[in-house]
Design goal:
Keywords: Magnesium, Metal-binding, Nucleotide-binding, Nucleotidyltransferase, RNA-binding, Transferase, tRNA processing. It comes from Longimicrobium terrae. Belongs to the tRNA nucleotidyltransferase/poly(A) polymerase family. By secondary structure, this protein is of the alpha+beta class. It folds into 4 domains: 143 residues, Beta Polymerase, domain 2, CATH 3.30.460.10; 86 residues, Hydrophobic Seed Protein (Orthogonal Bundle); 133 residues, no CATH class; 53 residues. The chain contains 22 helices and 14 strands. A 5-stranded mixed β-sheet has the order 2-3-6-5-4. A 3-stranded antiparallel β-sheet has the order 1-10-9. It has a two-stranded antiparallel ribbon with strand order 7-8. A hairpin with a 5-residue loop joins β9 and β10.
């Protein structure tokens, strides 16, 4: 496909009114100004983007003179946040061009023409500029034809683009998945060749790209399959690469394929849960055993929880995110039958914790769907979910802190503080789990008094 530097006129892409207002003010002051980036790409494909960025020939100091309300969001990089009359902040960046790169970051200098700015973009579909006043499209690299043909290719030489910033390999996989695009052969070959160098990326940048896949790509398995096919999975997530080719039971698909089905079955609005789903069976690769033709994965949930902890710490997730995912992976196989006696259900609720209840069931339901479980199995699990939610809603004691008495009452009975407190309270919780009606102050005080008399 031949790129063209000709400027075409397109219909109005309907940006927010203040985008046009900002552009007009800059243009009237003599500064060429265009909208650029993902908003232009998405609008050209029929989307309704919310975040619009502008690129201009104006330098930061000139922007701040023209607009009363500005925020210095990245002046050293040429970016000024301009507060529109609607109260929204729009990022306006001086045209730039790269002069030096190290595979992670680029050193840039200011430029005078939009084409120089578009030259430094990663992919042709992101190297399109739209003029908010004249409605002209500037497309020197053929991004619009590539959008129409659903082809993803780099601006210029793909090997050079990936050397400039290795994160572009991951971005390529995400964009191809998100927009259902075919990656150009040269771009794909260069991405595969660059995959071993991804270890030089910071953990934070890898984490954020992975989360964008889980949030933006529907279904995420499209991009995640390309992670494996390109060699990226083996480099960045070898624990998941190890699941590929491991049969998920006799005559069934492999663990990696099943994992992708589970991730797909969870809402993109729950990226944290999708992350737990991505790791939920990671322990199977090292726990698979086969005896007499029967395949089992003893303690794979515990092994998977340990793997989830290691992967998420390596990618520098927050402690809260790690704790949640690790707990969900550890508990994803442990649900009792729908007709379990009430005390059995309560003890299970104590183990998983009420705040994890809904996500444990969401993950389990996704797992069942991935296995192709019949409607009866899914209905049984939903019935158990309803029972569990009713139990929590009625305030059933599930933790020591839920008991009607505590350390204060034990001191009132003349018991000295010490290990005995914990033993007594744990015993009371067991008895209250069997019969929640016992959780009354006087009743529990009497039980303790009889125990120590």
């Amino acid at each position: 496909m031949t790129a063209t530097s000709d400027t075409e006129t397109f219909p109005d892409l309907h940006p927010p009114r203040d985008v046009v207002w900002i552009a007009r003010r800059l243009i009237d002051a003599g500064f060429d100004t265009w909208t650029v980036g993902g908003a232009v790409r998405d609008a050209l494909t029929g989307g309704h983007p919310k975040d619009w960025d502008l690129a201009t020939a104006a330098r930061p100091a000139e922007m701040r003179r023209l607009f009363k309300r500005t925020v210095p969001v990245g002046i050293e990089h040429g970016t000024v946040g301009v507060l529109g009359r609607d109260g929204v902040m729009y990022e306006v960046t001086t045209f730039r061009r790269d002069v030096e790169t190290d595979g992670r970051h680029a050193r840039v200098i200011f430029a005078d023409h939009v084409d120089e700015d578009l030259q430094r973009r990663d992919f042709t579909i992101n190297a399109v500029a739209w003029h908010p006043v004249t409605h002209e499209v500037r497309d020197p690299h053929g991004g619009v034809p590539d959008l129409r043909a659903r082809v993803l290719r780099t601006v210029g030489d793909p090997a050079e683009r990936f050397r400039e910033d290795r994160l572009r390999v991951l971005r390529a996989l995400r964009f191809a998945g998100r927009f259902a695009m075919r990656i150009d052969e040269g771009t794909w070959d260069a991405a595969r060749a660059a995959a071993p160098e991804l270890t030089h990326l910071s953990a934070e940048r890898v984490r954020e790209e992975l989360l964008k896949v889980l949030r933006q790509v529907d279904p995420p398995s499209i991009a995640l399959r390309m992670y494996r096919d390109s060699g990226v999975l083996a480099v960045l997530l070898p624990e998941l690469q190890a699941c590929a080719g491991v049969p998920n039971g006799a005559g069934e698909e492999d663990v990696w394929t099943h994992t992708l089905r589970v991730v797909d079955a969870i809402s993109p609005a729950r990226a944290g849960l999708r992350m737990a789903a991505l790791l939920h069976d990671a322990g199977k690769a090292r726990t698979r055993t086969e005896r007499d033709g029967r395949v089992t994965f003893p303690d794979h949930a515990a092994a998977g929880a340990a793997t989830a902890d290691a992967v998420m710490r390596r990618l520098k997730f927050s402690n809260a995110e790690i704790d949640t995912a690790v707990h969900l992976v550890a508990q994803h196989e442990a649900a009792p039958p729908a007709d379990a006696p009430d005390p059995v259900l309560r003890r299970w609720l104590r183990r998983i914790g009420p705040r994890y209840l809904n996500d444990v069931f969401r993950l389990r339901i996704a797992d069942l769907r991935a296995y192709g479980a019949d409607a009866d199995a899914r209905r049984e699990l939903v019935a158990l979910w309803r029972r569990a939610r009713r139990e929590v809603a009625r305030g059933t004691p599930l933790e020591i802190g839920d008991l009607a008495i505590g350390g204060t009452e034990l001191r009132q009975l003349g018991l000295p503080p010490g290990r005995l407190y914990g033993e007594i309270l744990r015993d009371l919780l067991e008895r209250v789990t069997d019969d929640p009606a016992l959780n009354e102050r006087e009743t529990l005080m009497g039980m303790v008094a009889r125990r120590v008399s």
